Amino acid sequence: MAPEPNLNGAYYGPSIPPPPTKTYHRSRGGGSCCNPCSCLFNCLCTCICQIIFTLLIIIGAIALVLWLVLRPNKVKFYVTDATLTQFDYSTTNNTLYYDLALNMTIRNPNKRVGIYYDSIEARAIYGGQRFASQNLEPFYQGHKNTSILHPMFKGQGLVLLGDREKSNYINEKNLGVYEIEVKLNMRIRLKIGWIKTHKIKPKIECDFKVPLEANGRSGNFEETRCHLDW
């Protein structure tokens, strides 16, 4: 037999075909694929932020228009007159005997705002201690109007004064002039046209000096403006 001509050379087997090339498909628009839940959450957040921002702009515009139309001014409180006929403090039983009458004015300077005074409590205070209180009649105050209050405090009550307050009382008794504070706790409503607001609780503080009447003679009382805290 004739020898095979290819048996003398090296044999490596059949050739291995090259690996197939991978084909990459890009999404339309060139962007990455978005998670539906994430996209929905982002859209909701954006819409909510836009709504809140729009509401804030609308509220601010309404407030500005109302302020320009109404031009609100603070109500002014004054103690115009005070009469003190008794103010005796007993250190033996810590009792204060008092007789104080006040004239107070409330000035509403607004042209388009009326005020309902639904409740008024007047508290008389000496040395940081309340010694009397009185509830005054509710009323309505119209535009650019001045109303007058007449709180009166008469009687006796337990008042615990410290050593410093007792020393101040002795000095004021020698001078015949006492430093007294009256606070007005109120619940009011504002009326703007046919609109009535919810109840507001302003606090009014009046610090004044009042001379004691002696032998039917009274000293000069200086009109005092009160502090208003909304």
UniProtKB/TrEMBL annotation:
<keyword id="KW-1133">Transmembrane helix</keyword>
<dbReference type="GO" id="GO:0098542">
    <property type="term" value="P:defense response to other organism"/>
</dbReference>
<dbReference type="GO" id="GO:0009506">
    <property type="term" value="C:plasmodesma"/>
</dbReference>
<feature type="transmembrane region" description="Helical">
    <location>
        <begin position="51"/>
        <end position="70"/>
    </location>
</feature>
<protein>
    <recommendedName>
        <fullName>Late embryogenesis abundant protein LEA-2 subgroup domain-containing protein</fullName>
    </recommendedName>
</protein>
<dbReference type="GO" id="GO:0005886">
    <property type="term" value="C:plasma membrane"/>
</dbReference>
<dbReference type="InterPro" id="IPR004864">
    <property type="entry name" value="LEA_2"/>
</dbReference>
<dbReference type="Pfam" id="PF03168">
    <property type="entry name" value="LEA_2"/>
</dbReference>
<keyword id="KW-0812">Transmembrane</keyword>
<keyword id="KW-0472">Membrane</keyword>
<dbReference type="InterPro" id="IPR044839">
    <property type="entry name" value="NDR1-like"/>
</dbReference>
<feature type="domain" description="Late embryogenesis abundant protein LEA-2 subgroup">
    <location>
        <begin position="104"/>
        <end position="206"/>
    </location>
</feature>
